Amino acid sequence: MSYNGWGRHENGDVAVDEILDAAGRAFAVHGVAKATMIDVCRYAGCSRATLYRYFDNRTMLHSAYVNRAALRIAERMGDATPATGPAPVVIAERILYGIRSVRNDPLLAVWFTPENMAVPIALSRDSEVLAALTAGFTDGLDGVPRGSEDTQRQGRWLLRSIVSLLAMPTDDPDEERFLVENYIVPALLAEPAGPADERTRT
Fold first, then answer.
1. Which of 110, 108, 111, 157 is nearest to 130 (CA)?
2. Domain membership of residue 147 as a residue range
3. Is this prediction's pTM over 0.85?
4. Are 3 and 50 in contact (CB under 8 A)?
5. 198 is a domain residue
6. Half-sphere exposure of 179 (CA within 13 A, CB side)
């Protein structure tokens, strides 16, 4: 196998994208949890030294792949869903779009099969993924709670809710829409209740 092509990558972002594309193929074939760094090298056509130059370990590779996928879905979301309207309606449409985007992409859907679920659960605390998801779903909407701590909490709730729906899909799309509109979105938009010790003093 020749690795000469990798010597011509002057732009590190291009190299990272090619590695992540190859990782996606390796995850789809071998499973997210079982694909090794050597498998990724084979699909990318690069040496192990090259791969480790960009990613120290599989956890970093997994995180980068998920972060890129989340950012791409968030970027497309604005064009694919309503840009204006009542915040609950817009956010519900964006959440449902995000879920469909994952299910319709075999390279992403494989992450939510039973044998691979441990990986997205482990990555659900990634701050970049949380920020990207929350910003994508709430961008441009008035009346949505803001603030770094609240944003992290919103992101954790949103990501866990989406992961649950992807891991345990309903057979009825109408039921899924009902769950999103009546349970996920209201919780996302609710004003923070404050720390428990403060609530007990009022």
1. 157
2. 60-191
3. no
4. yes
5. no
6. 18
Query: Each residue of 2-45: pLDDT tens digit?
Result: 444 555 556 678 889 999 999 999 999 999 989 999 999 999 99
Alpha-carbon torsion (187, 189, 192, 193), positive or negative:
negative
Q: d(Cα 137, Cα 133) in Å, to the nearest integer?
A: 6
CA distance 82 to 139: 11
Q: What gap in Å lies between CA 91 and CA 180, rounded to an integer?
A: 9
Residue count of the chain: 202
- Please check whether residue 86 lies inside any domain of the structure: yes
Of the CA atoms within 13 Å of residue 4, those in its CB half-sphere come to 1
- Same domain for 142 and 123, yes or no, is yes
* Amino acid symbol at 170: T
What is the secondary structure of 123-152 as a DSSP string?
Answer: GGG-HHHHHHHHHHHHTT-TT---SHHHHH
Give the type of residue at 8.
R
Whether residues 31 and 88 share a domain: the answer is no
- Helices marked H in 37-141: 37-44, 48-54, 58-80, 87-103, 106-109, 118-122, 127-138
